[in-house]
Each structure stands twice: as structure tokens, then as C-alpha cells.
Amino acid sequence: MRAQTRALTISGSLAAALAVVGLAVTPAVAATMLSNGHVDVLEADWDGANLSLHVHDADTNTEYAPSDVTLSVPAAAKVANPGYAFLGTGNEVWLLPEDQALANSRGVLFPGISTESLTTGVFANDRVTYTLVSATRDGADSSEFSVYAGNGNRWFDSNTKISTYKSKAFGVATHNHATWAFEQSGTYKLTFKVSGTVGGAAKSATETYTVVVSS
Length: 215
What we know:
This protein is mainly β. It contains 2 helices and 17 strands. Strands 1, 5, 9, 10, 13, 16 and 17 form a 7-stranded mixed β-sheet that branches. A 5-stranded mixed β-sheet has the order 4-3-2-8-14. The longest helix is centred in the N-terminal third of the chain and has 9 residues, at 12-20. Mean pLDDT is 89; it is low at 1-28.
């Protein structure tokens, strides 16, 4: 199921008219909310000159700009803390599993990290790097987000007290899944960068993703 809302953008003379009569003009918000199904949250694209990042809904084969999407993590994602030290001391955490059948059974997102659109022979060593640039929760720096595979093999960790687990290299033309973990409810802003080298020149793209974790 996809929960989808539409923002009405009011501009020009109509906005002025509404202001005159005292009506509030609401700023535009992300029009699409994704809450379940197979979604490649981090998908890198290359147009021959520039890298870019998109959100790819694999179930509907729809591609979105990250700024146009809100990722919803419902209460159904909240489970007992599996006990990995980097997940903190809370009894429960919100997990988006790397196992598709488990994600489907819970009705939550099955998040992917994709380089499938990148062909071989373009980027140095046929690799690009994803970097977690920053993470906030409800407007403050957050140490409560991580991505890990298998039995606690960390890929990314927003813990501000460590400098490790911020970047991970991936081969081009690959499709990867891991568990996305959130230790608290709230609105997260996750900024990721994808980077690589083409013909000796550094190329990169950076986007911020909105994730709403419900209590």
C-alpha cells in the first residue's frame, strides 16, 4: 500500500489575494509517502556527465527525487532490540529488514542501495562510494540511525562520537540490501553522498532524505 498526499502550491496574485483575506498559505511538502514494499532508497544514476541520487520504487518502477518523497517507518517496524551494542540500550528499535519476506510480513519498507544504473568501465575500479554525511532527528544531530547487514555487520552509523562507518564502497551494477535501524521515533533527515572518479575527475551528488518514524 502506498499512502500518498498532494501539496497545493499557491503563488502569484492568488496568494496575495488569500493573504488579504487572512488565509494562511501553506508551503509545499513532499507529495509522495512510501511506507512499504521494495524501495531502493539510495539509487545512483549517471547521465554521462554527472552523478545523481534518486529513490526508486521497484514495485511500481517509479523514480523520485529524494526531496519529493517521505519515507514512513510505522509502529509495525518496532521490535525487540537484537542486542548489538551500536543499537543502544533501549528495549525496542525500529527495523526495516534486509529480508524481503520479513519486511512484507510486517508491512514495512524493504530498503535497498543500488548502483544498477551504473555501467562497468566508467568509474575507476568500477566502484562508487556512499557516504552518510549527516543525520538529524527532530532538528538535532542524531546518533540513533544505522544500517547493518547480517548479524550486526555495520555499513553506516550516525553516532557522532565515532568517525567510522560513515562511508562504504559498492561495485557498479549491483543491488544491495541491509537492515535500516532507528533507535527513537521522530523525523529524521539523512544526508547521503555518492561519489566516484571518472577519467581522473571526482564526481559526486548529495541529497537529503526525510524519514518519519512513528511511535
